[in-house]
Amino acid sequence: MIAIGIGASNSAHPDDFDAALELACREAGGCEEVATLATATFARHVQAAAERAALSFRPVMLIGLRERSADCVTRSKRSLALFGVNSIAEAAALVSAGAGSRLIMPRRVIGNITVAAAQSPGRGG
Fold first, then answer.
1. CATH code given to domain 2-119
2. What's the pLDDT tens digit per position in 68-83?
3. DSSP state of 49
4. Which of 2, 63, 111, 113 stands 20 to 30 A from 79 (CA)?
5. How far apart are CA 24 and CA 3, in angstroms?
6. Beta strands at 2-8 and 33-37: parallel, antiparallel or unpaired
7. How far is CA 34 from CA 13, 77, 81, in A?
8. Pairing mode of beta strands 56-60, 102-110
C-alpha cells in the first residue's frame, strides 16, 4: 500500500489540498490512503480532499507521528517546534503505511502544503 501524508501551514487554502494530493499520488505512482495529524486545524480539508479522490482517510494521533519521527528524512523547524515531529507529512505517511514501511517520496512543499509518500513492506520496490 502507498500512503500519502499531508501537512500544512495555517495559510493553506482549502482548495489547494486537492491539487497537492493529486500531485503526490501521481508522483508516488498511485496511492490508497491519505493521512494527517488528527488534531490539525486543516485535517478536515485533508479528509475532504481524500473523499473527493475516493481514497481512505486516516487521522493519526500525535503520539503515532512521534513514534515514526526518527524515520523521517527531512526536518521542519516549525513542525519540530510545534509538535516535536521532524515532518508531519512524512511521519503521517509512514504511520499510515504501517510497521516496516519506508518513504518512497520525501516531503515536498507545494505552496503552503507538504506531502510525502510511504510504502508498506508487502508491496514490491
1. 3.30.420.180
2. 999 999 999 989 999 9
3. H
4. 2
5. 10
6. parallel
7. 18, 23, 24
8. unpaired
For residue 77, give the amino acid letter: K
* Residue 120 CB coordination number (10 Å): 17
Grid coordinates 508516488 are at which residue? 28
Q: Is the pTM of this model over 0.90?
A: yes
Strand order in the sheet with 56-60: 56-60, 33-37, 2-8, 113-119, 102-110
Task: Say which DSSP state 120 is in.
Answer: -
> For residue 123, what pLDDT is reported?
54
CA distances from 81 to 37, 42, 64, 77, 87 (A): 15, 18, 17, 6, 11
- 48-63 confidence digits (pLDDT tens): 999 999 999 999 999 9
To the nearest 10 degrees (0 to 180), the angle between helices 43-52 and 16-28 is 60
Neighbours of 9 (CB within 10 A): 12
Domain segments of the chain as ranges: 2-119
Quick one: cell of 75?
526536518
Q: What single letter denotes the amino acid at residue 57?
A: F
CA atoms within 13 A on the CB side of 111: 14
Amino acid identity, position 93: A
